[in-house]
Amino acid sequence: MTPPRTEKLLAILQEHFNPREKGWIWLALYADGDDRGVVNQIEGEFGDPLEAAQALARIVNEIRPDHAYVALCRREGRPREVDRELWRELRRRVADERLFDMVVFSDRHAWSMRAEDAAAA
Questions:
Q1: Which domain holds residue 107?
Q2: pLDDT given at position 1
Q3: CA distances for 49 relative to 66, 84, 109, angstroms
Q4: N- or C-end of the chain: fewer Cβ atoms within 10 A?
Q5: What total number of domains does the chain contain?
Q6: Residue (of 50, 71, 70) closest to 60 by Cα position
Q7: Which residues pair with 24 in a beta bridge?
Q8: Who contacts 70 (Cβ-Cβ below 8 Å, separation ≥6)?
C-alpha cells in the first residue's frame, strides 16, 4: 500500500475532526493495485482493548484485504496506554504485512503506532 493513500484518508479525517468522536475508530481496507478502498467508521469509545482488537482482527482476517489501516480519534492526537494495548493485540492477531499502521489523530496531530514501535527498537 502506498503512503499517499493513508495520508489522504488521514487528511480527510483531520479536516472533519470532531472532538466528540474521541475513541472512534476508522478501519480502512485496501487491495493492491486499486486506488479505492473501504472505510468503516466504528462509533463510540471502545471498551476492552483486547475485545476491540479481537473484533477488528476478525474483520481484517476474514475479509483478507491486502492492507488494513486503523485511525483512532483522540482530542490530544496522542495515544493512551489503552490504545497501545489495542495496537499490540492487533499486531499479534493480524499478519504484519497486512496491518499497515494504526494512527491516533486529532485535527492538528497524528501519532503513528508503527513509528513508535520502530523508535523503541
A1: 3-120
A2: 42
A3: 24, 9, 22
A4: C
A5: 1
A6: 70
A7: none
A8: 25, 26, 27, 28, 56, 90, 99, 101, 102, 103
The pLDDT tens digits for 20-78 are 999 999 999 999 888 788 999 999 999 999 999 999 999 999 999 999 999 999 999 99
Phi-psi region of 64 (alpha: psi -120 to 50; beta: other; left: phi over 0): left
Question: For the whole model, what pTM was predicted?
Answer: 0.92
CATH code, domain carrying 70: 3.40.140.10
Question: Residue 99: enclosing H or E segment and its boundaries?
Answer: strand 99-105
Q: Which amino acid is at 48?
A: D
Closest by CA position to 83, among listed 8, 9, 24? 24
Contact 61, 94 (CB under 8 A): yes
- Alpha-helical (H) ranges within 64-97 are 81-93
Residue 28: exposure state from Cβ atoms within 10 A (0-12, 13-18, ≥19): buried
Sheet containing 37-42: order of strands: 37-42, 25-30, 67-73, 99-105, 110-112
Residues 43, 80: Cα–Cα separation, whole Å? 18
